[in-house]
Amino acid sequence: MLIGAHVSPAGGPARAVERGVEKGCHAIQIFNQNPRAWRPREYSEEEIEEFHAAMEASEIDALLIHAVYLLNCASDDEEVRGKSLTSLIASLRAGEALGAHAVVLHPGSAKAGEVGPAIERAGATIREALAESERCPLHLENTAGAGGTLGRSFEELARLLELAGGGGAQLGVCLDSCHLFASGFDVRTPETLAAVLDDFDAAVGLDRLGSLHLNDSVEGLGSNRDRHANVGEGQLGDEGCAVFLSEPRFDGLPCVLETQGPDKTGPGAAEIAHAVALRERGLRARQR
Fold first, then answer.
1. Cα–Cα distance between 197 and 241 in angstroms, integer?
2. Which of these, 187, 110, 172, lies nearest to 141 by C-alpha position?
3. Which helix (H) or strand (E) holds 126?
4. Would you call 273 helix, strand, or coil by DSSP?
5. Is the pTM value of this prediction over 0.90?
6. How far apart are CA 182 and CA 222, in angstroms?
7. Which residues are part of the catalytic machinery?
8. Distance in angstroms (rounded) separating the CA atoms of residues 183 and 61
9. Exposed, middle or buried, 18 (CB in 10 Å: 0-12/13-18/19+)?
10. 119-170: per-residue pLDDT in tens?
């Protein structure tokens, strides 16, 4: 497992690598544009070359690009859908240029509308974006289930994947521990997590699982509230996080922390080290 953190790309993507190295990461995740603005960010050739050189000189093995939260590929507003499509295409093209492991996308929200048609709109928009960028993988992230958010169940994820193009290695899933827990999936013990993954395999297929987010949860099981806690400080606790980090079927995947950290600036080196130690603790427990 490649444990890492969401980091800032301010100053260029090579600076994101530097920040990841400082935190002891083996994977990093960035936004490729301002998360509060629609304007896509295009990297220069020099920035791309500097990024690849920084990655080559580091122990970071994977980059994830998180599409910004403004995107709603399921919106019934054509203007919002159009802006979402443009931004998603830009993210995928940035992923191609930087050699990203994947772009991670929240599939969208029906808001107060019907879920079925919203899933169809999201699937069509994602399919169109993928047609404009055929190399960088796209991972749809499961959601906590608040409001009309899509991807709260494995069946919804499977339907989204089908409508977005079905087969092929370009399309996968990112599972978030907090979102799973908030959606009612108990991931705190080896037995319950194994059962959850069995259900995921039956509905979606484990071959679709491409990346992970490790976040503890402020709220309880089935709350449908997406509120991240620092690792070990929420409802999952150290034990639950250790279980998630040591799951054998997660081996080799990038696993990114998206927590606030003690100073609310994101995960720090101490939290990354704590996650690494919890993985080792979980692996020892599974060997008993």
1. 16
2. 172
3. helix 115-131
4. helix
5. yes
6. 5
7. 36, 66, 69, 106, 141, 176, 179, 213, 226, 228, 258
8. 30
9. middle
10. 999 999 999 999 998 789 999 999 998 888 999 999 999 999 999 987 678 9
